[in-house]
Design goal:
Layout: H1 8-26, H2 33-58, H3 63-77, H4 80-100, H5 106-125, H6 131-137, H7 139-147, H8 158-162, H9 166-176, H10 189-205, H11 210-218, H12 224-229, H13 236-251, H14 256-270, H15 277-290, H16 295-309, H17 311-320, E1 327-331, E2 334-336, E3 340-341, H18 359-367, H19 392-401, H20 409-419, H21 432-445, H22 450-471, H23 490-497, H24 503-511, E4 518-521, E5 539-542, H25 550-560, E6 562-568, H26 572-578, E7 584-589, E8 595-600
Parallel strand pairs: 1-3, 4-5, 4-6
Antiparallel strand pairs: 1-2, 6-8, 7-8
Helix pairs in contact: 1-2, 1-3, 1-4, 2-3, 2-9, 2-10, 2-13, 2-14, 4-11, 5-11, 5-22, 7-9, 10-11, 10-13, 10-21, 11-21, 13-14, 13-15, 13-20, 14-15, 14-16, 15-16, 15-20, 19-21, 20-21, 21-22
Length: 610
């Protein structure tokens, strides 16, 4: 196996095969291939989640066990008839792929492929420096690899313990099948594939021809924030893709296969972000209202989704009296406690006075903010979703007055679900919205003349390419363009992408950790994911709050084999470490936090850390 990808292609192929075989059983031919594709991808993602939960409960989270689990799923469900059905569907997918690149919509498809290519290069070449990824998305992944099980990670970072972690479970399987961390930031790619398939399905259902539906759906990847997030282990692309899949199953025919798809997609969606409950409720209500005499099946699907994705909410309610703890919420007379207020989302990197605006005014202010070249980022707070967003008036006009206006329920539902959050002005919170826009443009213009359709398709492609060009500098905000880093050193690549700063210092500190040794930290470290080595060597441990200084801290450091430690530079631990220069060497002070990093000299008789 190539050292970069390890067993990932084999494991991913096995999961897809198993998922698609099950989809052909639940939605047998001659039903639409697009529906089976969406269901198969949803089953594969749910299987990845379930496999990590199972192996983690057993304490068997290793790369070999993960590969065996993937292969076992495929072997358990695959029979000769299933393989024949998959072969036919694969041939059909090949024809659709060719059609997506033949026509005026091909420019849009190419823009999406270029966006994924650049994101893949960034994930391959750059260190993992995404702020939220290092704070609370990746620490559960690292801890699972370190301990071989899924547990509540010992840390002071509330979101590591309280955040819904369905996406992080899929990230864990992704990382288990890799030899090192170089491609861990590309963990949202399977969700991006599923999201594009879902968008194409929605367009196809509304009468858009297959090649055009696929080509325009791929342009979703060229949305600047989508492209930039695909190079970071965040969860917003996955959240948006699961919303698309949920809409596919909620608005389709109500039968056994689609109810299974709805249960899985809604469950994963609920477990993807703490902002999911409101859109989840809208989707669940839509499914129930549309189910007619099949309402027991719809209620069973919603109940299954709650079980699949509701664990963090139940824990928050039981432990803290707030299902979305640590965020405090006020809904009329109902007050839910928490140390963080929701208003923080309205002030982070926003202009003065923005938080005081009404919801609609915040949304209008954000959408009227046009980021210039190089202003896009994976963590955008304000601005449009890219140049394609400028076609929103055309999409509304075409749906309102076009021949397909009666088939726009799914598109409208996807738009409403995307905006069903107080922080809808935040572009990365609403990444399903540009997908809904692309579907609306495709559906609304399908009945136009050939020349009119071609003009729409070429316009979408040109604007999508412009978005890629404008967003590409965001992959390396502190360095040269990503495509110039092929011959760069690892340090140069790290310094090109970090929002944390001090790449050289952090890399050097991590290098001191050997096999079986530990990098320790306390509450002064905002992003614990910085401490894990990309190659998986060594461990990371949180200093227990009761271990402060003196003999207790010395004993803990020895027991954990700590070789580097980051502590609050104004606290008693740092003072105690500084007072023993013969045992501890100060390395540096953190630039973006209050921590100070020390090297712990090796045991007597061993080489000391410089």
């Amino acid at each position: 196996m190539p050292p970069v990808v390890g067993w990932l292609p084999l494991g991913a192929a096995a999961l897809w095969l198993g998922g698609h075989v099950l989809a052909t059983m639940l939605l047998p031919g001659p039903g639409p291939l697009r529906e089976r594709l969406c269901l198969g991808l949803t089953i594969a993602l749910a299987a990845a989640f379930g496999l990590v939960e199972l192996l983690g409960a057993l304490g068997w989270l290793t790369g070999s066990a993960a590969l065996v689990g993937c292969l076992g799923l495929a072997a358990a469900v695959t029979r000769r008839a299933g393989l024949e059905a998959v072969r036919r569907d694969a041939a059909g997918l090949g024809r659709v792929a060719i059609a997506a690149l033949r026509g005026p919509w091909a420019v849009a498809a190419v823009a999406g492929l270029v966006a994924v290519g650049l994101a893949s290069l960034a994930a391959l070449w750059l260190e993992s420096w995404g702020w939220d990824a290092l704070a609370y998305h990746l620490p559960p992944v690292h801890d699972a690899l370190q301990t071989g099980r899924v547990r509540e990670v010992p840390t002071h970072v509330a979101y590591v313990r309280a955040y819904p972690q369905a996406i992080e479970r899929v990230f864990t399987l992704w990382r288990l099948l890799l030899p090192d961390e170089r491609l861990v930031d590309l963990g949202q790619l399977p969700f991006a594939l599923a999201g594009a398939a879902g968008l194409a399905t929605l367009a196809r259902r509304a009468g858009v021809r297959a090649g055009r539906a696929a080509g325009l759906a791929l342009a979703w990847w060229a949305t600047p924030v989508v492209m930039l997030q695909l190079a970071h282990a965040y969860v917003d692309v996955a959240h948006a893709a699961l919303a698309v899949l949920a809409v596919v199953f909620v608005t389709g025919p109500v039968d056994r296969g689609r109810l299974v798809g709805a249960a899985l997609a809604l469950g994963l969606f609920l477990g993807s972000k703490p902002s999911a409950p409101l859109p989840f409720a809208l989707l669940a209500a839509t499914l129930t209202l549309r189910s007619g005499r099949r309402w027991p099946g719809a209620l069973a699907a919603v109940a299954a989704a709650l079980v699949l994705g509701g664990e963090s909410y139940a824990r928050g309610w039981l432990v803290h009296g707030n299902p979305v703890w640590p965020v405090a919420l006020q809904a009329g007379p109902i007050a839910l406690p928490g140390p963080v207020t929701a208003s923080m989302f309205f002030v982070l990197q926003t202009p003065p006075g923005f938080a005081e605006l009404a919801w609609w005014d915040r949304l209008a202010a954000s959408w009227s903010t046009l980021p210039g070249p190089g202003a896009y980022g994976y963590d955008m707070r304000l601005g449009l979703h890219g140049p394609v967003h400028l076609l929103l008036p055309l999409a509304i006009f075409s749906l309102a007055f076009g021949t397909c206006r009666g088939r726009s329920l799914a598109t409208a539902l996807l738009g409403v679900v995307s905006l069903a959050t107080p922080a809808a002005f935040w572009p990365r919170f609403t990444l399903a919205l540009p997908g809904a826009l692309l579907v609306a443009l495709a559906v609304g213009s399908e009945g136009w003349s050939r020349r009119g359709r071609a003009l729409v398709d070429v316009s979408i492609g040109a604007l999508a390419l412009a978005g890629v060009v404008m967003a590409a500098p965001g992959l390396t905000p502190d360095g040269p363009p990503i495509w110039t880093l092929g011959g760069a050193t690892s340090l140069q690549r790290a310094e090109a992408a970090t929002a944390i700063g001090q790449a050289r210092a952090w890399l050097a500190a991590r290098e001191t950790i050997g096999d079986g040794e530990c990098f320790a930290y306390d509450e002064s470290v905002e992003v614990p994911g910085l401490l894990w080595r990309p190659d998986g060597r060594g461990r990371v441990a949180y200093v227990p709050p009761e271990v402060v200084e003196g003999p207790a801290l010395a004993a803990w450091l020895a027991a954990e084999q700590v070789r580097a430690i980051a502590v609050d530079r104004g606290g008693p631990r740092a003072a105690w470490l500084r007072g023993q220069p013969e045992r501890f060497t100060r390395l540096f002070s953190c630039r973006t936090a209050t921590c100070e990093v020390f090297a712990v000299r090796a045991r007597e008789g061993a080489a000391s850390i410089p």
